[in-house]
Amino acid sequence: MMTTKPLPLYGLDRLPPDGLVFIVESEREVGSLESIGLAGVTSADGERSPRMTDWTPLAGRDCVVWGDNDEAGRLYAEAVAGILSALNPPAKVRIISPPKDLGEGGGIEDWLANCRDAQAPNDQAAEVRRMAEAAPIWRRTAGGEPARAHHSPMTAREMLAKYPTLREPVIDGLLRRGELMNLIAAPKTGKSWLALDLALAVATGRRWMAFDTTPGKVLLLDNELHGETLTDRLRRVVGDRKIPLEDYGDRLIMDTCRGKGLDIFALKEYFGDVAPETYRLIIVDAFYRFLPVNTDENSNADLTSLYNELDTLAERLQASFVLIHHSTKGAQAGKSIVDVGAGAGAMSRATDTHVILRQHQEEHAVVLEAAVRSFAPVGKVCLRWKFPVWEVAPELDPEQLAGGRQKKAVVPADAENMKRARITPEDFVERFITGKPRGKDEIISEAVDAGVSGCKARMLFSAAKTRGLIHKWRNPQDRREVAFATVPQPSLIPESNR
What we know:
Layout: E1 21-23, H1 27-35, E2 40-41, E3 62-66, H2 71-85, E4 92-96, H3 108-115, H4 121-134, H5 156-162, E5 169-171, E6 175-176, E7 180-185, H6 191-204, E8 218-222, H7 227-241, H8 245-248, E9 252-256, H9 267-270, E10 281-285, H10 300-317, E11 320-326, H11 346-349, E12 353-359, E13 365-372, E14 381-386, E15 389-392, H12 413-420, H13 425-432, H14 440-449, H15 454-466, E16 471-474, E17 482-485
Parallel strand pairs: 1-2, 1-3, 3-4, 7-11, 7-12, 8-9, 8-10, 10-11
Antiparallel strand pairs: 5-6, 12-13, 13-14, 14-15, 16-17
């Protein structure tokens, strides 16, 4: 993506190599600071261009932001603090809240004018430093507001009590509530069709490709298609999947954002009045169309800042985000999973799940692979394009990538035999599920350790549930906690059968 070279900070050439750095909203205010012996800088063209400026010279510095006493000033201070905290290494950031008696719009220049007759420049500088030291270290909270940094670790006992289980899955095997997921493929591969199919799957609780989903409301933010085009695609997909309107009509919400100027940082305001848990899943299609102006997708600092913003939103909304993005040009076969995707390495590192589609040697087929953070490893899944949807293609060899064959990992002989063996749901239950209830993640993880691919293990688990070979157990204290065993939970056995 073509980007404009970031502009330099005003006042950078006069900045000492160490000590406090004050960030203000205008070049004139930088001059006011310098008049009392303080070092100040401002973004290129003042408060209008905080994201068009090169802030990297302030990496690791001790910075204090003084914005004007109005809404624009508060937004400017927050934007600058977010950028500085995402640098490598991050700057230590404080925000000075201007005294309320300055009135609306009052900044450092107004404050100096008010006390010029009562204080000498040295006293004014000392007072500004005192205000800076009294300001809390800026931290982004779930609501996006700064919070006081404080020492608040927990003992292992407290952690175990506070977090007894993992968050519930949204796409089982790939994504949990409040997590971020990339979905990466080459341009014009059919990502948007796949995203729409995913939205419908979660909205209705249907299976998506090889993965079970948990039903809930889905918001699809589409920044590429016109409303007419998106609606036509919806009709085609639900027609092919034979999904009745009553199953998705009020659970799938779509917003065509093309031409509206909505970027990642504007999403905070966009979701301002949305209550937590309104949506289970939010799909952003396509990610590059939501990049703020002059963002460099090859900059780790820029992308880290964007993903930090999305993490904050996901936590506040208690929703998961899926970001649809494109891969780099050229052959992808020899690359690691996390290296597939246009942009800086922070793109794959900052998310909980990185899903990629690579071209299979067979025409109109791809291989789905994933790097996950909170699930057992996911096996490769072949998909075949059957307009207007993708279908799982178990007959294809996932190692047969276009442009070259990937080297197979060396695995133990028993694991290799397990991979090749034809395993039935009955075999799976006999080997990995007992009369003692265990969580699904533990069962799948054990199967993966034994050589069954993560995808195959989940499919066999799902089949065993459908056939009534295993039974669900619920924790009486917290019914969200679910386990599975080969026998029914005692409290659920009818009295006549006891």
